[in-house]
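Q: Here's a chain of 372 amino acids. Please give me its 3D structure as tokens.
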Amino acid sequence: MKIVILGPAHPYRGGLASIMETMAREYISRGDEVKIYTFSLQYPSLLFPGKSQIVDTPAPADLHIERIVNTCNPINWIVVGNRIRREAPDMVLMKYWTPFMAPCFGTIARIARRNGVTKVVCQIDNVEPHEHHIIDRPFNRYYLGAVDGFVYMSEQVHLELAQYTTAPSLFSPHPMFSNFGERVERSEACQKLGLDPNCDYLLFFGLIREYKGLDILLQAWNNIKRDGLKLIVAGEFYEDKGKYDALFEPLGDSVILHDRFVADADVKYYFSAVDALVLPYKTATQSGVTQIAYNFFTPMVVTNVGGLPEIVPDDVVGYVCPPTVAGVEGAVKALYENDNLSRFRHNIIEVRKRFSWSAMCDKIVEVLNMLK
């Protein structure tokens, strides 16, 4: 096939870019012709809460990536849409995760489809965003109505999608991230991160936003902390860090804060050093961080919100608990009872087989074939 992938890619950082690049490689390995069209401008700096949107590493030599999409320039949307229309790929594969992208993506999709050949398929993360705005529903209607078919990663997203469109859609769970490398020896990971190898560690990982529930975990940590056990909080604050200061203060050195974006090359050290990942989310659709944990055979504690229980079977690879202080406290303490941690690591070997990029790409092709 001739495929255009439209969404985040190098030099843009983070999991979304990794997803699009990994899917491109999967299709290339099948003999398809793949181009990635990414952003010349993704977010205006005023709307971006982090420190930087891009990385300074070299572009991947095995991928055709062009930075041609400006999300804030309607003339650009028309130009890009007409370029894709003329190129007439079999499929435009889009990633959708926020209504902010709807005007840009919806316009490009509408124009690209006018050639009578190209179908637009969306691999969708979220329909309703975690932080709501008055523009969400009209923007969602505009974009989702321009798409021919969808692959979703949780039942919650499927239910929300059904409120906007009857286009064909299929489920495929979030694949397991493999671009961060393999697990390393714990001693090496501790040395790299400056950690005492005689301590046990738990990990909160990822961008820090209100819905991710770090405040719940810090309140629970008051009753969890003990000698020889520490919590690592690794991620960049996408909200006011000051609101957490009062929670950090009484915890002292039982919490290690790495408040920065973790480079891809360093991710393996965090997941190799810790006993388990803790995701105390208040709301969720799914989480890419769980798929990093699967890659490194790291047990998990997650809350029973959104699609998280679909991805993390309770008492198999970790625990699913209520999104409350008491719920998180109880689940974390249970990790260290009996042989639970070793049992969960063993079970991950089998469960992680569900989460392949090949299966995700197969579902996308299956949706495309439904449109013919």
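Q: Can you summarize the key feature?
A: The first strand starts at residue 2 and ends at 6.
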